[in-house]
Amino acid sequence: MNNKKFPSIWFIEHIWFEFEQRLKKEDTKKNYFSAIRTICEYLNCDFTEITLTDAKAYFDLISYGKQSLSKRTIQTKLAMLRSVGTFIYQNKKRFGCPDYVNVYTKIKSPDYDNYLHIEEIPTLEELDFILEEAKDNPMLFLMILLVLRCSLTSDEICRLTPNDICIDGRNIMFLVLEQNGKRRYVKIPDDVKKYLLSYLEQFGCNPFLFQNQRGGQLKVRTLQNMVRELIDKAGINRKFNLQDIRNASITYMLHGGAPVEQVAEHAGISERWMYRYNKIIEELDFSPVDYMNLTIK
To answer: What is the CATH number of the domain that holds 181?
Structure first.
């Protein structure tokens, strides 16, 4: 079990200790450190290890999740993290991280165009390649299915337990997800259900549905790395992450005619952010019936 705390003691004693001297008010120092600690704890890594993919996943969560933060709060967090990142970048050799890149300069503020575009999501053919490559790894294959067919987030995947899986009197399987005191029900399609039942036969006694090699809870960063390697092995030249696959899931449901409010509820997205998918749906050039190609054989 990994009991490391982030940000690390080294980061606090060296980088943070020096950076906070630039801040005059105690409340400001607390807010900055809270922003650092929150993203580090979510990604389970030190601040200097956060990649652009990591940062985008975090800001997608706080921007478009069911419990999304206000634009002003997101802008404030982003500004603070950019400031810390710039400080590290300017002193990267002295801090012993010569390859450090300030990834927060590449994160868009909520005021910018948030519409998704077709080149930002995998095609159906690319999704087929990804699934085919993942089939030899039951855990990874199932995680991809749950993102693609149930629109789960990376965080939801990592927090899943066998107790979250239920079957009602009609033999319909669904997930019961709870966050911040709110409960959400997500139906498991039949083509995913058979793989989930098979997986539960082997790993249903574990405290978490998906575990790392040490038997502990799978972390978001580890999951992202697994998916990155999978996409490379699948021979896909474009770079995608789980959030992109999730966006594809939502896009294809909407393009297939599913009502916006139902998709928002299914995916745990605040309905006010569903406009982001409007342009990408207009750009798609296949028939809605092609959505059925996502059924897993």
So the answer is: 1.10.443.10
